[in-house]
Amino acid sequence: MKLRAVEARVLSVAPWLLALSVAGHLFMVAFQAKMTMIDLLVYRNGSPHLFSGDLYEWRLDQYADVFPLPFTYPPFAAAIFTPMSWVPWEASRWIWQLLCLGCLYFIVRTSLKLLKLQDPRRAMMWTALTLWIEPVRTTLNYGQINLVLVAILIGTLASARNWVGGAGVGFAAGIKLTPAISGLYFLIQRRWMAAVWSFVAFVAVYGIGWAISPSQSDKFWFQLLGDASRVGPVGSAINQSLRGALSRTVGYDVKTGPIYIVAVLVVAALTWFAVSRTKDALALIVSVQMLGLLVSPISWSHHWVWMVPALLWLIYEGGHLLCKITAGLWVLLTGGYLISFLLLAQPNIWDFPRPWYFVLLGWGYPAAGMLTLVAIGLATRRKRNELLPGDEEAADGEPSRVAG
User: Fold this and answer.
1) Which residues contact 374 (CB under 8 A, 6 or more apart)?
2) Burial of 318 (C-beta count, 10 Å sphere; 0-12/13-18/19+)
3) Which DSSP letter does residue 297 get?
4) With 215 labelled, which of 284, 303, 339, 367 sits at a CA distance of 20 to 30 A?
5) Are 74 and 68 in contact (CB under 8 A)?
6) Given this model, what pLDDT does residue 33 score?
7) Where are the alpha helices (DSSP H) in 65-161?
């Protein structure tokens, strides 16, 4: 009751809280003392090299002394980013920041809509608060694309129209391959046509990339795909995937060896536990995305913006003690900027050996991700068991996605 009373008071000033939060962020953007949107600069400066045929040989040497940054996305992504190179750098910085802020609000609003909580003040409140957690902050500071992709995915996955959902997944996967895991959501829901549409859309964007540059398309899909070391240091604390955490634990890159395979099987089992007894759309979306983040070779800390809808589900829909514990853990990890601390503490981005306590802390996001899957599984089973037989049948018959 006390928490509800606090929330009610905060909701009464939510528009002002959002305005102050956004103003504070934009003030920081305006007075940045050094380059921070380095990934945006890679998108902007690297993408035109698609047309000169050296996209994947190009590196951003400026502001990247230790690891000159390559362009790591498919050719279609370069085609999408190219118009950004026509805009002056200062203007592109502001355009990107405003776009990402809009995407964050959309992500929160859509998540709450799936939870049947449509008070616009609640969306304002959570946008204002999540703007300052680590995955969102690092996405904004690096000029990353994560918020844009999550907005595309959660918006289209929530649609009742198969072609909309499928096209969204295929389009996002054409920009960055990891969103392809979202197709599993359609298979779980037995939305076969949506799965077909996602494949068709992905083939279409692949075809566009190949039509623009066959040589660069062949190089990406048949030579570079799967080379995690090209993307960055697997063992750095910023890589919060299972592979990253396991590699830091044993002291070398586990690659796709037996240790990694066993870990993937464990996470797959946890995902099945989370999704097998529910039709809750947001629970299914969050579970699938947790699986993707955990099993991906590289999941930088800023990729974990999916914890925003996860946090909202745990708080408002969980109804289990473990949900509250997991929500608190996410707040502690992301509000405490754990990964930023670990990055400052490690001697460099390449060395795997770490003190045992840093190794343990380096499991932060993967541990919270796995705990989220367990919490969802327990909470959805508890909710299902609490329903009477007739109510359970009615609940199963409720629409599990937003119409429109």
Assistant:
1) 270, 273, 274, 322
2) buried
3) S
4) 303
5) no
6) 62
7) 75-81, 89-114, 120-130, 134-142, 146-157
- Cα separation of 198 and 187, whole Å? 11
User: In the numeric block, which tokens belong to residue 266?
Assistant: 């464990």
pLDDT for the residue numbered 64: 61
pLDDT for 402 equals 45
Give how far the C-alpha of residue 399 lies from the chain's centroid of Cα atoms, to the nearest Å: 25
Q: Is the dihedral of CA 260, 266, 271, 200 positive or negative?
A: positive
Q: What is the pLDDT of residues 332-382, one digit of tens each?
A: 999 999 999 999 998 887 888 889 999 999 999 999 999 999 999 999 998
- Taking only the tens place, the pLDDT of each residue in 69-121 is 899 999 999 999 999 999 999 999 999 999 999 999 999 999 999 999 989 99
Q: According to DSSP H, which parts of 131-280 are helical?
A: 134-142, 146-157, 162-175, 183-188, 192-212, 214-219, 228-231, 242-250, 258-275
Rounded to a whole number, what is the largest CA-CA distance in the chain? 65
The C-alpha atoms of residue 248 and residue 191 are separated, in whole angstroms, by 39
| Helices 14-30 and 2-12: angle between axes, nearest 10 degrees | 70
Q: Which residue has the tokens 């190949």?
A: 210
What would the DSSP string read from start to end of 167-198? HHHHHHHHHSSGGGGGHHHHHHTT-HHHHHHH
Residues in contact with 235: Cβ distance below 8 Å, sequence separation at least 6, in sequence order = 244, 247, 248, 253, 350, 351, 352
First to last CA, the chain: 35
CB 123 within 8 A of CB 75: no
| CA dihedral sign, ordered 10, 13, 14, 19 | negative
With H, G, I as helix, E, B as strand and everything else as coil, classify residue 158: coil
The β-bridge partners of 69 are 60
* DSSP letter (8 states) at residue 402: B
Residue ranges in the chain modelled with pLDDT below 50: 388, 393-404
